[in-house]
Design a protein that fits this description.
The structure holds 2 protein chains of 2 kinds. Helix content of chain A is 51%, strand content 15%. Chain A is of the alpha+beta class. In chain B, helix 1 links the parallel strand 1 and strand 2. Chain B starts with 7 loop residues before the first strand and ends with a helix. The chains are: A alpha+beta, B alpha/beta.
Chain lengths: 286, 159
C-alpha cells in the first residue's frame, strides 16, 4: 500500500498547509531548527531567571525562619510575664535580628519586583505590535536579565542620544539578547563587552563590541548561515544570528560585522527610526 | 558563653542580602562574631588580622570567584573550615573545584538554617582541634629537637 502523507493531516493542518501554499516553501527541517533555537534561547533565559530569583528567595527563606525563631524567643521570655535583666538583653538581640531581617526583606522584594519589571519590558507583552520604542530601555532590560550570564565580564554602556524607534520591541530585544550571548561566549572571563548607541540620519546604530577571540574572514563570511556555529551544539545550534538578521531585515535594517582573529568582534545593528510602510512584521514563534 | 558557641565566622557573598540574612540568623541563634564581606578581595586582608575559624563563601562573584578566594584563604588561615554556598547553576563548577581547596561542606541556595548552624558548629570545633593538634605537634617537635641536642652533647661528653 502506498502511503499518502496528506491522508495523515487533520483538517486544521490541511487548512494551514493550504494557507501557506502561495508563500515560498520553507524546508520543515529548517523551521524545526528555528523553533529549536528559539526554545534553546528560552531555556537559557529561564535558567538565568531561576538563578536571579534564587538569591532573594534564599534570603527570604532564611529570614522567614529567623522571624519564627525570634517570635519563639519572645514568647519564651514573656511566658512567665516577668522580664529579667538577662532576658532584656535577649529581647534587644531579637529586636536587632528582626530589624536586619526587615531591611533584607525590603531588598529582596524590590529585587523580585525589578525582575518582573525587566521581564515585562523585555517581552513587551503589553505592546506586542509595532510601537515607538526607547531602545536603551530594551538594552537595559536585556542586560539585567542576562546579569548572571554575563558574569564576571565587565559590561560597559556607551549610550548616545536616541530617538524613539518604530519597531516590535520584543523582537528587537531578542536580537540584543542573541548578540550579547554571542559576545559573552566569545569573550574570556577577564574581557569586556561594550554596548554603544548613536543616531545618524534617520537611523539608529547599536554596536555590541567584545574583546573576545574574534574570527577570520572565512568564518565571518558564514556566520549568518543557519547551522554555522563556533560553539558547542548546546548553545543556540547556530541559529541565533540568522534569526537576528531576519528580524532586523524585516524592520528594514541591517547587521554588520567587523572581526579579526585575536582582536574581538563588533556586531552593529542599524535600524531606521521610522518604518517605510505601515505593515506588521511577521511575529513568528517566540 | 560556652566555647562551642564562640569564634569568628566570615561570610563572603557579593549579594548583600545573602550576607545580611546569614548575619541576622547567626547573631540571633549563636554567640559567634560574624564578619560579612561583599567582596572577596576586601575579605582577604581581614583574614590576616582576624582569627577566623569558619569561612562561608559564595561561588560566582565578580573579580574573584569563591574557589580562588577559598584557595587564598587556605594559605592565610590553613586551619579555618571552608564552606561554599552556591546557587544551583554553579553546582557543576563548584563540585569540580571542591578538592582544589579542601572544602569541608557545600550548601546550595536556598539553604537550611538549622543544617548550616550544625555544620558551622562542627567547623569551629574542627578548626579548634586542628589548631590544638598543630600546637602539640610543634611542642613535640621542639621537645624532640631539644632531646636530640642533649643526646649529642652527652655523646660528645662521653666519647
Amino acid at each position: 500500500m502506498q502511503a499518502d502523507s496528506g491522508a495523515l493531516l487533520n483538517d486544521d493542518a490541511r487548512a494551514n498547509a493550504n494557507a501557506g501554499a502561495d508563500t515560498p516553501a520553507v524546508p520543515d527541517a529548517l523551521t524545526d531548527a528555528v523553533t529549536q533555537a528559539r526554545l534553546a534561547m528560552l531555556g537559557m533565559l529561564v535558567a538565568g531567571l531561576a538563578h536571579e530569583l534564587n538569591t532573594p528567595l534564599g534570603a527570604l527563606n532564611s529570614n522567614h525562619d529567623v522571624l519564627r525563631r525570634a517570635l519563639g524567643k519572645l514568647q519564651g521570655i514573656l511566658a512567665d510575664e516577668v522580664v529579667t535583666a538577662d532576658e532584656l538583653d535577649e529581647v534587644r538581640r531579637v529586636v536587632r535580628a528582626i530589624d536586619g531581617v526587615l531591611r533584607v526583606n525590603d531588598m529582596a522584594v524590590e529585587r523580585m519586583s525589578e525582575l518582573v519589571r525587566n521581564l515585562r519590558s523585555f517581552g513587551r507583552l503589553d505592546r506586542a505590535g509595532m510601537d515607538h520604542v526607547d531602545l536603551h530601555e530594551g538594552l537595559d532590560s536585556t542586560l539585567a536579565i542576562l546579569d548572571y550570564e554575563m558574569r564576571p565580564l565587565v559590561v560597559r554602556k556607551e549610550y548616545g542620544e536616541l530617538p524613539a524607534v518604530e519597531c516590535q520591541a520584543h523582537q528587537i530585544n531578542q536580537v540584543f539578547m542573541n548578540l550579547l550571548l554571542n559576545a559573552r561566549q566569545a569573550t574570556p572571563p577577564d574581557g569586556s563587552i561594550t554596548v554603544r548607541t548613536r543616531a545618524h540620519e534617520g537611523r539608529v546604530i547599536v554596536s555590541v563590541i567584545d574583546t573576545g577571540s574574534g574570527m577570520d574572514a572565512g568564518r565571518v563570511a558564514h556566520i549568518f548561515e543557519p547551522g554555522f556555529t563556533t560553539k558547542g551544539a548546546r548553545v543556540g545550534m547556530g541559529l541565533g544570528l540568522p534569526i537576528s538578521l531576519q528580524i532586523v531585515q524585516q524592520h528594514g535594517g541591517r547587521i554588520d560585522v567587523q572581526s579579526s582573529t585575536g582582536n574581538g568582534t563588533t556586531f552593529t545593528v542599524t535600524l531606521p527610526v521610522r518604518q517605510a510602510t505601515i505593515t506588521t512584521v511577521q511575529g513568528g514563534k517566540t | 558563653m560556652k566555647d562551642a558557641d564562640a569564634g569568628i565566622v566570615m561570610i563572603v557573598d557579593d549579594e548583600v542580602m545573602v550576607a545580611a540574612a546569614l548575619r541576622s540568623f547567626l547573631e540571633l541563634e549563636t554567640g559567634y562574631e560574624v564578619l560579612t564581606y561583599t567582596s572577596p578581595v576586601e575579605a582577604l586582608p581581614a583574614l590576616q588580622e582576624q582569627d577566623v575559624k569558619v569561612i562561608i563563601s559564595d561561588f560566582m562573584m565578580p573579580v574573584m570567584d569563591g574557589i580562588t578566594f577559598l584557595r587564598n584563604a587556605r594559605v592565610a588561615r590553613p586551619f579555618a573550615t571552608r564552606i561554599l554556598l552556591t546557587g544551583y547553576a554553579d553546582k557543576e563548577n563548584a563540585i569540580r573545584a571542591i578538592n582544589e581547596v579542601g572544602l569541608y561542606h557545600y550548601f546550595e541556595k536556598p539553604w537550611d538554617n538549622e543544617h548550616l548552624k550544625m555544620v558551622i558548629r562542627n567547623g569551629i570545633e574542627r578548626c579548634t582541634l586542628f589548631t590544638e593538634l598543630d600546637q602539640r605537634v610543634s611542642a613535640l617537635e621542639n621537645a624532640n629537637a631539644e632531646l636530640s641536642g642533649m643526646r649529642r652533647k652527652l655523646m660528645q661528653a662521653l666519647l
